[in-house]
Amino acid sequence: MSGALKSIVVETKIYEGQKPGTSGLRKAVKVFQQEHYTENFVQAILQATADRLKGSTLVVGGDGRYYGKEAVNKIIKIVAANGVDKLIIGQNGILSTPAVSAIIRKYKTLGGIVLTASHNPGGPDADFGIKFNCDNGGPAPDNVTNEIYEITRVLKNYKIVPELVVDIDKIQKTTLQVDGKDFTIEVIDSVQDYVELMKEIFDFSAIKNLLQGSADRAPFQVLINSLNGVTGPYVKKIFGEELGVASSSLVNATPLEDFGGLHPDPNLTYAADLVNAVKNGPYDFGAAFDGDGDRNMIIGEKAFFVTPSDSLAVLAANLEAIPYFQRTGVKGYARSMPTGAAVDRVAAKSGVEFFEVPTGWKYFGNLMDAGRLSLCGEESFGTGSDHIREKDGIWASLAWLSVIAKLGKSIEDILKDHWTTYGRNFFTRYDYENCDSEAANKVMAEVETKIEQKDFVGTKLTYENKVYIVKEADNYSYKDPVDESVTTKQGLRILFEDGSRVIFRLSGTGSSGATIRLYVDSYESDPSTFDKDAQEVLKPLVNVALVLSKLQEHTGRQAPTVIT
Ligand code: VG1
Ligand code: CO
């Protein structure tokens, strides 16, 4: 390809429903494959950046799922036609979500396009997704995604350079002439920038010493499962090459277009292989990550499960184990609203500022940008810090290994000590996936009608001999302390006098039907309860929630699809 390239304008047709959810636009691959569908959405993203687009640099990459490369090739052509100066592309179209965030920040780009449906399955009959991250490296906030959506509803055409073809499998930098001006394409190593960042944040030699053991201490054995998602190459580089972990302990570490048929969601159900291997094997530590690498699950010896809410709290209490925080200090902690409240107690004890935000990582960004937030997390296996503006699975596993190296204890002992100091928040989430939308709406309406009744506060809800008195109930809304924007209808909450909480939300990441999420959180300070099974402790509250919502009646579901 040589000489001058020219853009053309393609008349298009409008597609309904290009509304980004909790994290980008997620639909079946077949939906994205429709003529103009992907092009429309990409053009809308670019138009939403308005006058900042001309002369800018953008990043693109994704989790390697089916349709990713085709989407990259389309994006190259559309970006070139819209007056962008430079496009940075992960080799083979591969970049984890945290890596995109890191690259946006490092090279000060206008933003990045992330090609992923995250933890949703991949392949020709599964899901694809497109997400836009802004110049702070974080997921576009609501005002930007609303703008993108509004543009998709009126879009008449898009611009494209049909002849522009680039080999994205080869690391290279090329400058071409497009419409009489320079357009540069840089295909970069997918892992290098991210690995450099991790080495600045963590003490790799301390972690390596832990993993390799010494004369008086056995090696600390880890098993890392990438679920055939994007983290494979990052894991091989960091855990394999840098930290010396044997490749036999780094499993499913090659990104596959269909994740090898796995559901790349690191929880007890979908990462059961990891759980079983750690339960029956010699391992001290197990970690799994989701398709795009922003989620993590951490388990200890014999598959001792660390709930994400506890994981956040333990890291909060031990941040001084990590060199990055020794340098920056600890500015604040935050969690999403449904996340178990364990970190609240660490914040209260240490006097560090604390925030509760709606579900979705985009709500943490403003607080981080304002220098008020260092560490945050979500119950959905998301943990991260202000080193970037996305949650970060590999970061979380390195953070845990740093804490373990510092404390010299097993994961189980670290958790038990934590509960002894702070008490224990028991947490569970029930997911009812792929319900009929109408039925799911009925469940939500049932709860909303009840909690709106004037005398609902003070109501006693009972299960066997347990009595819960309603202290407060609402449809959660949030006012951002930085820009004062208000976000409403973020989940139905029932707060009880003893501090327990029950929350109902509809998922915003599915591609069809509706997923109902029921979150239950309660606090115990009595040490004799700490060893109990969370399901047993929370059973009365779960039942109260099921009766109140008539969930089983409305949906016909006797049991959830996934229990966390
Ligand atoms: C889910 C999680 C939420 C998370 C989001 C994106 O959203 O509950 O906490 O931020 O996924 O994660 P929802 O609307 O389905 O509950 V990821 O790793 O899929 O980008
Ligand atoms: Co993800």
Topology of this protein?
Blueprint: E1 4-5, E2 8-11, E3 25-28, H1 29-32, H2 37-48, E4 57-62, H3 68-81, E5 86-94, H4 97-106, E6 111-115, E7 127-133, H5 142-154, E8 157-160, E9 172-178, E10 181-188, H6 192-201, H7 204-212, E11 222-225, H8 231-242, E12 250-251, H9 272-280, E13 285-289, E14 296-300, H10 308-317, H11 323-328, E15 333-336, H12 342-350, E16 354-357, H13 365-369, E17 375-378, E18 382-385, H14 393-407, H15 411-422, E19 424-435, H16 437-452, E20 460-463, E21 466-475, E22 478-479, E23 486-487, E24 492-496, E25 501-506, E26 514-524, H17 534-549, H18 551-555, E27 562-563
Parallel strand pairs: 1-9, 4-5, 4-6, 5-10, 11-12, 11-13, 15-16, 15-17
Antiparallel strand pairs: 2-8, 3-7, 6-7, 9-10, 13-14, 17-18, 19-26, 19-27, 20-21, 21-24, 22-23, 24-25, 25-26
Helix pairs in contact: 2-3, 2-5, 7-14, 10-12
Bound molecules: alpha-D-glucose-1-phosphate-6-vanadate and cobalt (II) ion.
Cobalt (II) ion binds next to loops.
Cofactor: Mg(2+)
Organism: Cephus cinctus (Wheat stem sawfly)
Keywords: Carbohydrate metabolism, Glucose metabolism, Isomerase, Magnesium, Metal-binding, Phosphoprotein
